[in-house]
Amino acid sequence: MDFSRGQPGDQEGGPGPGLPGGLLWEQIEPPSHHFSPEERALLYEEALYTILHRLGQPEPNHVTEASELLRYLQEAFHMGPEEHQQLLQKVQKLEKPIFCLKATVKQAKGILGKDVSGFSDPYCLLGIEQGVGAPGGSPGSRHRQKAVVRHTIPEEQTHRTQVITQTLNPVWEETFILEFEDISNSSFHLDMWDLDTVESVRQKLGELTDLHGLRRIFKEARKDKGQDDFLGNVVLRLQDLRCQEDQWYPLEPCTETYPDRGQCHLQFQLIHKRRATTASRSQPSYTVHLHLLQQLVSHEVTQHQAGSTSWDGSLSPQAATILFLHATQKDLSDFHQSLAQWLAYSRLYQSLEFPSSCLLHPITSIEYQWIQGRLKAEQQEELAASFRNLLAYGLSLIRRFRSVFPLSVPDSPARLQSLLRVLVQMCKMKAFRELCPDSAPLPRLVTEALRTGTVEWFHLKQQHHQPMVQGMLQAGKALLSLVQDIVGDLHQCQRTWNKIFQNALKVNLFSVAFLELQWLVAKRVQDHTAAVAGSAVSPEVGESLFQLYVSLKELCQLAPVPAERDGVLALDGFHRWFQPAVPSWLQKTYSVALARVQRAVQMDELVPLGELTKHSTSAVDLSTCFAQISHTARQLDWPDPEEAFMITVKFVEDTCRLALVYCSLIKTRARELSAGQKDQGQAANMLCVVVNDMEQLRLVIGKLPTQLAWEALEQRVGAVLEQGQLQNTLHAQLQGALAGLGHEIRTGVRTLAEQLEVGIAKHIQKLVTVKESVLPEDAILPLMKFLEVKLCYMNANLVQENFNSLLTLLWTHTLTVLVEVAASQRSCPLASSRLKIALQNLEISFYAEGCGLPPEALHTATFQALQKDLELQAASSRELIQKYFCSRIQQQAEAASEELGAVTVKVSYRASEQKLRVELLSASSLLPLDSNGSSDPFVQLTLEPRHEFPELAPRETQKHKKDLHPLFDETFEFLVPAEPCRKDGACLLLTVLDHDTLGADDLEGEAFLPLRSVPGLTGTEEPGEVPQTRLPLTYPAPNGDPILQLLESRKGDREAQVFVRLRRQRAKQASQHAPKPGR
């Protein structure tokens, strides 16, 4: 056989006969299954003769009526009524064949032991008794004779088997041909005898084994010498037999002495000799049977095709009956029947459509029965030719498997798999190896067929896509379609076909197809790109080139692993052929996206898409544009790392530019739509949508690193770029675009906030002008309702990020307005109270149960300062005085230095007497306030604040002359209830003064003892031993206390003014005698 890269062979179509790729079979073309009229007439005569001279009972599934078989023959041979009648009459006039019974005596078992040894030496006599089988009678009903065959059948018609000595289970395997004339009155007879040879008594005694054997000796003694013993017989009417019988028959006794005489295994076949048909006289039996089988199977297949069904290999009962009768009558062996079936089926398979699995049975049968030298030379050549023909035809189908077994037909994979199985089994046969020794291994033949078929398929596809009009664009589109078809074909090979060839032959179809196709594709793509590079590239041609590039990438991704291919691929580095077109691809990508963005903005009515989707249609279109750009980048996926980096830079630059263009366009669109709107609310709606669109755009832009696979790019370019170059370039571009978008969003939110800030300021100003009779909770209602309406509206129209930004701006502005108003209302506790309640409610509103601003965004420094100021401004004068003393008590507790001196006291409270007992023990380290370097100290004791203890007058100690460490040791008692002593700010004020005779006393310092910490007031028990308390002296704050400033502003409050005057006096005194640093 010759292997070559031939030109494309047969055109695509059904599985008709054709040359396999590279196989020359001029002399092995199978003969047609159609016969000439003369051959058909002779074959028809043979079939009629078979039916008319049918013998035996029909098989269970066979047709009984001859008329039905004749009608079937007439259809199968396409015989007209007249021609059929003529041939039928001709056959009826032919001489009958000689009817024969082919009887095979196989074996027997369980026969009687007639010899002294307990065994027998059996043999059989058999023949046919004629003229006794009258209808209704039975040979078995006659009186059995001991020598049926010898007495009823002439000796020349009697047949005898060999003698099998000393056995009860003899095996003969002998076949006899018994002729008969009339099956209706003929019977088969078989007698089984034990051969009796003449032996001496001594010999017999030597064989004696038991008493039963001794009885046989006495019986033998009474017999005539040399007389055989009857073992049993079998008598059968021939008309009761089927054409073929194979079963065990019981041996019948001639007496009832031993009714169970064992069984005999017989095979029968009713055959013909000297058939009078022309075909039988002129051709070998198996050849005639082959032709008949071929004709009937052809008819069966054709009938199924006419009914739009596929023949499954099962013959109709009529065909099966005729073929069985013919094979039986012609006495064809199973081997020759299988041989005929193989020759017929293998020929028909090459011209008719039926499952190749029908060929497996004859292959198996021939392989099982094959014996070298069993066939004649011409039969061997015929069988060898059938092998070569089927192999060549099968390879032709494999070569064209894409068209012969299309995947559009559901059972195509199964059909191909069945064909491969048949070829594999055939090439494994002993007969094939002996008759076709020069045949190449099947995997090599199939590989070559697949390679040649793939090249032919490529050329057919190329011709199919050949453009009608010649031009660069048309050529590019044709090449693109061709490559796409190739990619689709390789996918099919990979998913479906490769597994079939791999399992059957260990042939990697996918690798074979890919390696062939990639060379063919590479040559044509390289030629096309070279031609395009030499001329101006139009947008259409550029788009065609890009699609071709993408298809080639998909094709290369299918490449087998290096272990399954030799060397480099022709498509390696194919991207370099497209390098000149890359700039035009990038420009077109940007131009298309820009046009789409402009069109989307122009059609946008700036209305939210829904309750949950708060951006408009243009934002959706813009996201789609960016997704398309990212998709194009992924499709391009340029292999060269450095160039891939520059391409990615361009994609990012274009995307960021589009984002900023969109911001400009959408703002212009909003101005156009709101220009004719009288409703300011509608303009606000549009502004909300614009801000949301920009926010959506920012989210999309932020996904660029993922969409463009920056991480993978960074790994690829790490070896060719400087460290940090990708970060500095791509991320800088992205951050610049995000910063620009952030500025635009903030500007939009700032505009929305400004529209609300005016209303907020107006309502806060109204708070301080409401009548005094209106409660603060009612006074703030208009402000809260205004905020509720506006914030709900903004929340419904802004995405969460922008709404939070708006809240932040509004909160900052609201605090600023509250600070300004609070400053103007310092002297009005009522207004400050309203502002305080307003601040509390505004905090709750802006927090919105966790859905608004977080606490850290609300509690700014401004908020905390304002909250503290309003807390003071809203308090009454007495509350402020109380707060003042609280702060002085705190200052006292924090005082650690005694640079002004200190006083020591013991203070207790007796609840039973409601007396506060103060023991003023001493003072120490006082400042020398007199010109003589000393002081004249005394201590003034008062319970503060005065409004809590109005009945208690101040007390004083004795004055000590020129003493900086006086020991007073004086006791004072104050009659006072416990309740005011336990209040915040309640304290014992110890004022140490320097007595001046001519002028006002000078202040040495003050000490504050909180009454709630005094023993007796902290619990219910009476105090025991009272501890001493040492209190450092302090001065009032030199910069002025804010509480005093607030009290001073309340000009109409006499109590406040008196308190402030006293505290100012003490502060003035302190400033005159403040100690110098380093004392």
UniProtKB/TrEMBL annotation:
It comes from the Eukaryota. It is a peripheral membrane protein. GO terms for cellular component: exocytic vesicle; late endosome; lysosome; membrane; recycling endosome. Residues 11-21 have a biased composition (Gly residues). This is Protein unc-13 homolog D. Residues 777-884 form the MHD2 domain. It comes from Panthera leo (Lion). Residues 80-227, 899-1024 form the C2 domain. One of its GO terms (biological process) is exocytosis. Its main location: cytoplasm. Plays a role in cytotoxic granule exocytosis in lymphocytes. Required for both granule maturation and granule docking and priming at the immunologic synapse. Regulates assembly of recycling and late endosomal structures, leading to the formation of an endosomal exocytic compartment that fuses with perforin-containing granules at the immunologic synapse and licences them for exocytosis. Regulates Ca(2+)-dependent secretory lysosome exocytosis in mast cells. One of its GO terms (molecular function) is metal ion binding. It is found in: Cytoplasm; Late endosome; Lysosome; Membrane. Residues 1-25, 1015-1037 are annotated as: Disordered. PROSITE patterns: C2 (PS50004), MHD1 (PS51258), MHD2 (PS51259).
